Amino acid sequence: MTASDRVKTPTRFWIVAFLSLLWNAFGANDYVQTQIGNRSYIEGMTQGTGLTVDQLMDYYTGFPAWMDAAWALGVWGSLAGSVLLLLRSRFALHAFLISLVGLVFTTAWTIASPMPGQASMMVPMIFTVVIFAVLFALIWYSRRMYAKRVIA
């Protein structure tokens, strides 16, 4: 399929693509702030947890390399998918699928190694379910837009 085979892009496509970019930009910001060890950002994450900034920073810096890599795949794969969606590229689907792989591994790590002092896994699991739901929706939407020739 060539670019000339594309159909007119519906307005809702741009809305979904832009919202996906905003959603995934939050995840990318979280990743960057955590990786650079932004103390004030991490301090905001400690609210209501009973953890100190140093405890939470130790938790994040204690990730094995494969966990950091999986987290990066999840975050940057989704952000790339959103950008590729805005560019109307069929490779958005591939990027979202790569992100799914990263999300599966980071979820496994989160379940196996919860934050220290975390009394309940309820909130993290609810948020993880929301992330999975959004990602599955973006995968489905990318496939649908490719089938309808909106993206090529």
Rounded Rg: 17 Å
Largest sheet: none
The number of helices is 6
Q: Quickly give the structural class.
A: mainly alpha
Distance between the termini: 6 Å
Q: Could you list the spans in which at least 5 consecutive residues all have pLDDT below 50?
A: none
Work out the helicity level.
over 70%
| Fraction of residues in β-strands | under 5%
Q: What is the global morphology?
A: elongated
Structure description:
This protein is mainly α. The protein contains six helices and no strands. It has one domain (9-147). α1 packs antiparallel against α4 (65-86), α4 (65-86) packs antiparallel against α5 (91-112) and α5 (91-112) runs antiparallel to α6 (122-147). The radius of gyration is 17 Å and the shape is elongated. The mean pLDDT is 92.
Question: In short, what is this structure?
Answer:
The protein is an all-alpha fold and 152 residues long. The chain is built from six helices and no strands. The protein has helices spanning 11-35, 39-45, 53-61, 65-86, 91-112, 122-147.
Furnish the topology, listing elements before pairings.
Elements: H1 11-35, H2 39-45, H3 53-61, H4 65-86, H5 91-112, H6 122-147
Helix pairs in contact: 1-4, 4-5, 5-6
